[in-house]
Amino acid sequence: MAKIYPFRAWRYNRERVGDLSRVLTQPYDKITPEMQERYYRLSEFNLVRLILGRVHPDDDDESNVYTRARDTLQSWVKDGILVPDPRPALYLYDQRYRVPGTDEVKFRRGFIALGQIEDYEAGVVFRHERTHSAPKEDRLRLLRHTHAHCESIFMLYRDEEEVIERLLQGVRASLPDLSVVDEYGVEHLLWVVSDEALITAVQQAMAAHRLVIADGHHRYETALAYRNERRAEACRSDDTQPYERMPMTFFNIAAGGLTILPTHRLIHRLERFDLPRLLEFLSQHFELASASVGEHSDEVLAALSDDLRRRGRDRIAIGMYPAPGDRFYFLTFRPTGSTETLLNGLSPRERSLDVVILHRVILEGGLGLSPERIALEPPITYLREFPEGIRAVASGNAPICFFLNPTRVEQVWEMALAGEVLPQKSTDFYPKLLSGLTIYRLDSP
């Protein structure tokens, strides 16, 4: 079902750019304005100039971030900053990382190849979240100008027998062709695999699998739109054309090494916040327990986070820290008859998600924050770090923060294959794929 292909990646010429950590970046949608400026300062060849360039006050149709990205890419190719590999290849891509907030070290093992771009209706590629028009229009304009994919889509597949891992284990026994550590301390390792027999074996093994997008929904749907534009221009469909494929990085969910981090919700701009009334409402749907916060030391906050994780091992458990900030609440889901009304229309899979219960029962039912209000006038700041939410409430910057345990990889897989999508900011796969490791130019042989 899944069609993959080797390709001649364009990669940074280390003789010209030096330390690769100065030119490779996090994915474009994770680059803050501060990160963008830092990347610009790091190197004149930093990839940010291609994937998220600076906007100038005098930009117009003739000169803008997209035309500058096109011209920069052409210049780097001409000057040998980027060079193509001599033969089509697959690229083994491993990551060694420490799980944030813990001492646990994990290895995530995958590989990069071109993947066939498929309509969702074909039943090969499945999404797990909705996309928005503005990011897709931005990426589409960039792709039209550069004719290049500088970033890879993060794909999941399931191979319980680990056939592909066994095929590639001999390659991993050798020294990697590339090793670089990013700004988060994640080590990225890359091996080039150009053996034709081995590539064919991997292609055949992947043909039996379905794919779920973990990260990169906007870029995938951008590639779909661009493919359709090129098909319309050619007045035909030819799935061997370069624009019919894009770089994807594949990870086997059965092989371990995957981490999803929680994304907490800091709520602000509430017209009226009545804690006693909220607690009374919550008692109808949750078992409530609380702990004194006291000083906001790292030890106290780590203990609260660990307790929330423990309570959520076999039940839905949500943390709540409201102003005035003297107590932290643990909300363990205990649905009643009145809860059923709030969950009307949700599937059993959706009801198993902490984030769905938070949004449907607490935010909508308890605080009156409808999906329309959240979409039009976002009252939520999404946070990765547990202490950040505690300190925002304690300092008076927000009246309340809710804390979640991470969505499980298996939940993402099951919902995607069932054709269901998770709420916004339900998954934060960590670490991200490093951008610029392998660039796919559509106009290159």
Describe this structure in a few short sentences.
This protein is an alpha+beta fold. The protein has helices at 14-17, 33-42, 48-51, 65-78, 133-146, 163-172, 196-206, 217-234, 275-282, 298-311, 337-342, 348-351, 354-366, 371-376, 386-394, 409-417, and strands at residues 4-5, 10-12, 82-84, 90-98, 105-116, 125-126, 148-149, 153-157, 178-181, 187-193, 211-215, 245-252, 259-260, 264-267, 286-292, 317-322, 327-333, 380-383, 400-403, 429-430, 440-441.
Task: Describe the protein's architecture and organization.
By secondary structure, the protein is α+β, with helices and mostly antiparallel strands. It has helices at 14-17, 33-42, 48-51, 65-78, 133-146, 163-172, 196-206, 217-234, 275-282, 298-311, 337-342, 348-351, 354-366, 371-376, 386-394, 409-417, and strands spanning 4-5, 10-12, 82-84, 90-98, 105-116, 125-126, 148-149, 153-157, 178-181, 187-193, 211-215, 245-252, 259-260, 264-267, 286-292, 317-322, 327-333, 380-383, 400-403, 429-430, 440-441. The strands form five sheets. Strands 1, 4, 5, 6, 8, 9, 10, 11 and 12 form a nine-stranded mixed beta sheet that branches. A six-stranded antiparallel beta sheet has the order 15-17-16-19-14-18, sandwiched between helices. Strand 16 and strand 17 form a beta hairpin. It is globular and about 65 Å long.
